[in-house]
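Worked example 3 (structure in, sequence out).
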């Protein structure tokens, strides 16, 4: 069962990042590559990461179908309402496809097009979305009624995890996973399980 999905910071990834991902690999269930790096640079970064022992089945590619196929990976994440996700899933049901969502309508569309899960948020106020109001409790409860796994996103930390409503399949985060040690991630997992 997937619980924790780490998302890379939106920057060119470095050797330091590569070592961090190797260190935390055991504690996460997926690593989403969301970066401005070129197709070629990201290809070489991920190839190097895999060669150094990072589990291939934990790698999630953001939007770049060509890169997914070139690396022979099986997990793809798409932007909200990107029709390519629906088309690709219909032609490749074996590929795990997720989507970012911010509304009940988007989550419903993802479910109706047989996507595997969605990221939904933002749940808490977050520096990455200044001046944007988080989803309301009413919106969250409506989304959690749909029969698709929903992952919370938006300033999920060891402090806020206890405030998440029950029903989320897991969490996704940028800052927490980019900065946490394996021990801190394992502690957060204990907190998640305790509250589930």
């Amino acid at each position: 069962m997937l619980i924790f999905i780490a998302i890379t910071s939106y920057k060119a990834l470095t050797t330091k990042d590569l070592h961090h991902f190797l260190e935390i690999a055991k504690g996460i269930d997926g690593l989403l590559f969301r970066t401005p790096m070129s197709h070629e640079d990201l290809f070489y970064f991920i190839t190097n990461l895999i060669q150094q022992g990072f589990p291939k089945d934990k790698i999630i590619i953001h939007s770049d179908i060509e890169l997914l196929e070139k690396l022979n990976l099986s997990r793809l994440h798409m932007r909200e309402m990107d029709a390519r996700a629906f088309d690709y899933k219909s032609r490749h049901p074996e590929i795990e496809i997720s989507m970012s969502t911010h509304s009940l309508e988007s989550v419903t569309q993802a479910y109706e097009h047989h996507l595997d899960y969605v990221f939904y948020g933002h749940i808490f106020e977050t520096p990455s979305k200044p001046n944007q109001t988080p989803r309301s409790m009413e919106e969250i409860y409506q989304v959690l009624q749909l029969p698709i796994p929903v992952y919370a996103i938006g300033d999920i930390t060891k402090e806020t995890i206890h405030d998440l409503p029950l029903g989320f399949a897991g969490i996704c985060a940028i800052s927490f996973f980019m900065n946490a040690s394996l021990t801190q991630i394992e502690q957060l997992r204990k907190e998640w399980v305790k509250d589930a």
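Notes: The chain has a mean pLDDT of 94. The CA atoms of residues 74 and 153 lie 22 Å apart.
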